[in-house]
Amino acid sequence: MKKIIPFLLILCFEISFSQDDAWNISTTERNNYTGIVLSNGRIGILPTSQPFGIKHIILNNVYDKASVSGVSRMLEGMNFGNLQLEIDGEKVTEANMNSWEQTLNMKDAVLHTSFQFKDKATVFYNIYALRNMPYTGYIDIIIKAEKTIQVKVTGGIQTPQEYVNPESTFSVHRDLETTIPILKTVANSKFEKHKVATSSTFIWHHVKKDKQPELKHLNTSKHNSQIFFEQKIEKQKTFEFAWTAATCTTQDFSDPSSESERFVISNLLTNKTDLLNKHKRLWERLWEGDIIIKGDLQSQLDVRLALYHLYAFGLEDSNLSIAPMGLSSKGYGGHIFWDAELWMYPPLLLLNHQIAESMLNYRFDRLEPAKNKALSYGYKGCMFPWESDDTGEEATPTWALTGTFEHHVTADVGIAFWNYYQITKNKKWLKQKGYPLLKEVADFWVSRASLNSDGSYTIKNVIGANEYAHNVTDNAFTNGAAITALRFAAQAAKALNIETDKNWEHIADNIKVHQFPNGLTKEHSQYNGEMIKQADVNLLAYPLNIIQDEKQIRKDLSYYEPKFDKKGPAMAQSILAVIYARLGDSENSFRLFKASYMPNKRAPFGALSESANSNNPYFVTAAGGMLQVVLFGFGGLHITDEGIIQKKPLLPKSWKSLTITGVGINKETFTVEQ
After folding, report:
1. Is the peptide bond before 599 cis (omega within 30 degrees of 0)?
2. Any catalytic annotation for residue 240?
3. Tens digits of per-residue pLDDT, 540-549?
4. What is the pLDDT of residues 305-316, one digit of tens each?
5. Catalytic annotation on 610?
6. Of the listed 177, 467, 499, 587, which one is catalytic?
7. Catalytic residue among 561, 610, 668, 673
8. Statement to judge: residues 147 and 276 lie in one domain
9. What contacts 267, CB < 8 A, 6 or more positions away?
């Protein structure tokens, strides 16, 4: 039996794991519980500590308005979790169960739960968001009887109150000898933009057809429809069954009602081992891109949990991107920000370029709305929204000035596109997608910059990465990102032997980046030492690589780190950690690596909140930041015109080795040892 070792984390909660297993995070603690999402890139399932509990289900890229005069918000799906179990007429609850334990198996993307009910039964169940069936969820259940017991199991579909006109049905389809029971609810989203359909059923994979329990329907209310069965289990016998459901919408299907049934029928009539093995094999393929840390098991678990979330929230071949909260909640409306390109995309570009390409396709598919936005504001080229939804139009609430003035996102998108070409060298892609978008990005910045009397260029009236400074001139990061995007557009043209617009490089060479009299980089033209929300100037050293002089980099680090708001977002410290690592400063790099996420961990698994003082996990932007420290800092990896190269890696003192696998299109391995 493996020894379980408790670890006391910064917030004084315990997680436990076996010393030789860096894939599982287990807990027996239900106080202050924050669940970990099971997700397949289409739906996100958030479990609770209650028996069979599911807090909510989030639907990716499915939006309706949040209010009559408000902007869009990603939909919460119908909740097909929250099974109810009764044993000998008594409902199983948190109050009457004991020996409860949950384990997140990151390798297979499954949450295991077990508990005992009095001296009568032991219950085991696993929750999956099936990667191979990405509109479906699956709960696998085993009840072991310690005494002869009578059980009643109820499964249902709970429709959020904001849905309109829900209609629930229970029908038993038959095709020759096959019996197919389906519970289904169909409803319209709040303002009827979408029709949503959820179908579900019980499955008895190991029970002969003539001995399967009879399903009965309970239509308890318009928003809660249920079916149940009863079963006697003899002493020391086990009873196995499953509950599966599928959610489809008019965002992806013209007939979501029928399609949701078909997905459930597929799961119902597919061999259980085959169904779950396909899910596991797809996750095995994802984990070909992995980060292996020896000597510091806690850091290994933290890093793997971050990477798990990027993989869980992304989906190859989907042309979807990742919101700041992924599919853990409707936070920030489920909109797509710069978080996707600057924070989450770089680790994925290294470790899974297929998901990275889907994120780029999300932007390319919305290029026309971005061009329309630029034209509407009097600019040329394309102007991506600060908050983007399925339409590609601006989705930021009107009261938030970021939606009108935080323009660096357009440069961030362009930079991500060139980085993809640097890694893949795919000229066909560059010709068809990369350059057409980069050209529009560059044309935007040409029209956005203003010529000064001294021949320099200024970018006025923006909000930069530091969102505490509104409507400033020559924000350091905005200008640096524009410079970088303009130069990358010129490089893309040259790679395709297309005549370069001379304005691109000329303006890039002459955009102002202001300095204090002592040579420190100024965050914007009027900056005078105020508190800042997060890294801004420091982004010019990494990832933009505009400031390369080591003395200048160190001066900017020393000056701006104390200016960071301690209540600011998690990823702020990670940029500084990368820079210190590249400067060869292991101590400060590791200090800031831990500072970038440890105060934000929430019990019991370590879900990351946006800031140390907030409670809105999972903040996948922070996951992207901490992973960049490991890959681009400690691992010494650089994205260059020659592809991915390694320069001067270094390890924290407590780490014996770092191995990064599955890097780039050739799936290379990089190893760093003490």
Report:
1. no
2. no
3. 999 999 999 9
4. 999 999 999 999
5. yes
6. 467
7. 610
8. yes
9. 130, 133, 136, 138, 203, 244, 246, 275
